[in-house]
Design goal:
By secondary structure, the chain is mostly helical. Helices cover about 80% and strands about 0% of the residues. It has one domain. It has six helices and no strands.
């Protein structure tokens, strides 16, 4: 239980700082630290994010004028539908295939961020 709270706290801090959490922090932490299979880690991460866990962080950004509510609502709609499509795809892959696909995704994003910095 303590491990899961620590994972959640780390994801919350990073989500508040960078807008990340579920896929980049919680999923890998559950796989590497809690020894979850990739699909179980992803499902658990989505379950944890199901409730409005970002509400306080979003409120702080809104309070300081750094939240575009219409854009956030459109993104939420995309997330709603995209999470379903992604979950269907993930269920058709093996655990190792899913882990490798995620690793490739992270490397590509890291390269893009590095080059654009």
């Amino acid at each position: 239980m303590i491990l899961f709270i620590v994972i959640g706290l780390a994801a919350g801090v990073l989500a508040g700082m960078f807008g990340i959490g579920g896929g980049i922090v919680i999923g890998p932490a559950l796989i590497l630290l809690a020894k979850f299979q990739p699909q179980l880690a992803t499902g658990t991460s989505l379950g944890a994010l199901l409730l409005p866990v970002g509400a306080l962080g979003a409120w702080e950004y809104w309070r300081r004028g750094h939240l575009d509510i219409p854009a956030a609502l459109w993104i939420a709609l995309g997330l709603f539908l995209g999470a379903w499509v992604g979950a269907r795809i993930a269920q058709s892959l093996t655990g190792p295939q899913l882990q490798k696909a995620f690793a490739v995704f992270l490397v590509l994003i890291a390269i893009r961020v590095w080059v654009k910095a």
